[in-house]
Write a structure and sequence with these properties.
alpha+beta, 35% helix, globular, five-stranded antiparallel sheet, single chain
Amino acid sequence: MVSLRGRSGFEQLATQWEQMIVRMTQVRFFQHPDWYRALFDSALADPDDFLFVTVSDGPDVVGLFPLQIDNFRKLGATINTIGLCNHPHMALADCLIDDSHEWSWLISSLVRWLHEAHPV
């Protein structure tokens, strides 16, 4: 797994993201990098709050997880969270999983990596 953060990470990943979309049979508009580019360009979200995690099979990215890092305070404690984009004006968010790969394996790999790597 590779993780890239912020606007620079997003831009490094954009070409591979586009290549992955071309290979997929069903892609929704909110899975496209332009959805995130619009989010960042409109200043609705800080790009530095995003971690883009990829899973590769050889040279191809087969799983792409755009994750938003957030924290909130509850009973005096700060709780760090990571998940799909959560913004009132961008209500749709999703990860991308190549049609030729098993989604459950990719999701479990992501969860295991997050637990072991502690990227946040």
